[in-house]
Design brief:
By secondary structure, this protein is an alpha+beta fold. The protein has nine helices and four strands, in the order βαββαβααααααα.
Length: about 190
């Protein structure tokens, strides 16, 4: 008879970028913890962690601003952030339904409950979190693509450039066109 493989999921706070994934994978390898998958906010490991290993892992990832999340409310909040972050990886594949419906379908909780929980644990609303994520994506698209502001606004599902500009300015203090000018100035300095 074969022994059943024990799989454990660890939830991790504040994972929002590729370097966070690298940190988690590196620290798991250092502790000789076998894992099958590491995604934003989650790590699937092939064993139960001892209290000692879990503490060592948590201490190691805390140096990078990450932390194991163990309470149910915190885990749900991280799942909300994961789903939103995944949408920004491929904005063109956003669901056709409202985000509130999408989150409810994916996570199985009432949206009002999730919204209140998110606000309590993150000190911001889901909507504000999305606006900040959109501002980050706008910056990324301005810096690393040749898309026009109109194309960016369509890609991120804004009704118009004016609405996108207004939200971007509230989040960053700059308009997207001013940010684009700063990019051009930076490129001119690099070229000369």
């Amino acid at each position: 008879m074969f022994a059943a493989l024990t799989m454990t999921k660890i939830y991790i706070k504040n994972m929002a970028c590729e370097s966070c994934l690298t940190v988690v994978k590196t620290e798991l390898k250092k502790l000789n913890v076998a894992f099958t998958n590491v995604t934003y906010g989650e790590a699937d490991i092939k064993q139960n962690l001892s209290v000692e290993k879990k503490q060592k892992f948590n201490n190691a990832i805390k140096k990078s601003g990450l932390e194991i999340q163990e309470n149910k409310q915190g885990i749900l909040t991280e799942k909300i952030k994961i789903l939103i972050n995944e949408l920004f990886e491929k904005p063109e594949s956003w669901p056709k339904v409202k985000l509130s419906v999408y989150l409810k379908e994916k996570l199985g909780y009432d949206y009002n409950y999730m919204s209140n929980l998110f606000s309590e644990t993150q000190a911001t609303t889901i909507e504000q979190y999305i606006i900040l994520k959109k501002a980050e994506k706008i910056k990324e698209l301005i810096l690393f693509s040749d898309l026009s502001l109109t194309e960016i606004s369509h890609k991120l599902r804004y009704n118009n450039v004016s609405h996108m500009s207004s939200q971007f300015k509230k989040a960053t203090g700059l308009t997207p066109s001013h940010f684009k000018k700063l990019k051009k100035l930076r490129n001119l300095r690099i070229d000369s």
